[in-house]
Design a protein that fits this description.
The chain is an all-alpha fold and 107 residues long. Helices cover 79% and strands 0% of the residues. The longest helix is centred in the middle third of the chain and has 22 residues, at 58-79.
Amino acid sequence: MSWIILILSGALEAVWAAALHRTAQVSGRRRAAPAALFLVAVAASTGGLAIAMQSIPTGTAYAVWVGVGVVLTSAYAIATKVERPTAARLLLLSGIAACVVGLKVVA
């Protein structure tokens, strides 16, 4: 169960990163809905990480949390055309995903 919570928390990291990007100022004011989503997602993400770290070693849990967040945030950026899906970028993101899976296998 801790691993599921950890993976979902990593996914929420991508949600808060995307929401943070969307809070850009419009007419001198920040957008309220993305800012609220950011606050909820960051609290849930770090809360889930804290729960998972009760039974998964800290280094492993943090590496998986960040790895899942990085891969999903980059995938979102590619899907929304903020970043280009270059061969090097896709290869490196695949490497991060493989390392996350590897950490689960050796845990």
